[in-house]
Amino acid sequence: MEKIVIAGGSGLIGTGLANHLRKAGHEVWVLSRKPSGLDGFLNWDPKTGSIDPDAITKTTVLINLCGAELAAKRWTKSRIRELYSSRVETTNFLFESFKDSADLKQYVSASGAVAYGFEHPEKIYKESDSFGKDIISDITRKWEKAADQFASVCTVSKIRIAVVLSESGGALQKLANPVKKGFGAVLSSGEQAIPWIYSEDLYRVFEWVIAHKLEGVYHASAGNTTNKELTKLIARTLKKRLLPAVPAFAVRLLFGKMALMLLHGNQVSNEKIHSEGFSFLHGNLNSTIQRIFG
């Protein structure tokens, strides 16, 4: 059994992951700015530089899920700064807090699977491929560079997470909501790639990486789809019709700079995590969507 502390653990992924790891027999604590005396939560605030000493004492695994959601708001200058700081500066604070720990054995950082640029949409990227030159890739690169500081303390694992499919919220529900209301549509050509993973499998990837002390970068992706395929599959499952595709210029007008991640994507390989003995329980997109919406 490990004592696991999760930073950024109050969101969709963190809540599910904490429950999953507790069921697996681990002692799990979630860092929160407002713990309100709830069991399983410890206080911290990176902006003020405070953290409960109990979060550090005897903690063997630290998981960092911190990072402002990429698709939550338009990418104004202040929002872009927040996308960087919520990842990089928070990681820096965690390192300063844990750098002298004699107990920490593993640091597991969330990261993004869409990190390789959009010049070669036909390519299936491996973890060893270079970062792209766009803003999403740069955010990911600097996030992982900050995580690498922990190499002087413990094993460092970086999990590049695909789009998470879940009943409880996240990107899939944002895509499905307009479909449910009758005004869903494919974006532009719809050919933009979307790597995906079901939430339960994502939690299992984290558990596997921890159990086997895996070091380095791993993709958490069960497969690759496209905006068109996923949107049509949701509509078919919900028995809803789609409107004509939204032109690219309209997406840019509506979302500004954030349209970059809506109009582009990349495919990623999951061969590396497979080679470590991991098997996905939900590797079929059709049955996964049926499971969520059927």
Automatic annotation (TrEMBL):
<dbReference type="Pfam" id="PF08338">
    <property type="entry name" value="DUF1731"/>
</dbReference>
<protein>
    <submittedName>
        <fullName>TIGR01777 family protein</fullName>
    </submittedName>
</protein>
<dbReference type="InterPro" id="IPR036291">
    <property type="entry name" value="NAD(P)-bd_dom_sf"/>
</dbReference>
<dbReference type="InterPro" id="IPR001509">
    <property type="entry name" value="Epimerase_deHydtase"/>
</dbReference>
<feature type="domain" description="DUF1731">
    <location>
        <begin position="246"/>
        <end position="291"/>
    </location>
</feature>
<dbReference type="InterPro" id="IPR013549">
    <property type="entry name" value="DUF1731"/>
</dbReference>
<feature type="domain" description="NAD-dependent epimerase/dehydratase">
    <location>
        <begin position="4"/>
        <end position="214"/>
    </location>
</feature>
<dbReference type="InterPro" id="IPR010099">
    <property type="entry name" value="SDR39U1"/>
</dbReference>
<comment type="similarity">
    <text>Belongs to the NAD(P)-dependent epimerase/dehydratase family. SDR39U1 subfamily.</text>
</comment>
<dbReference type="Pfam" id="PF01370">
    <property type="entry name" value="Epimerase"/>
</dbReference>
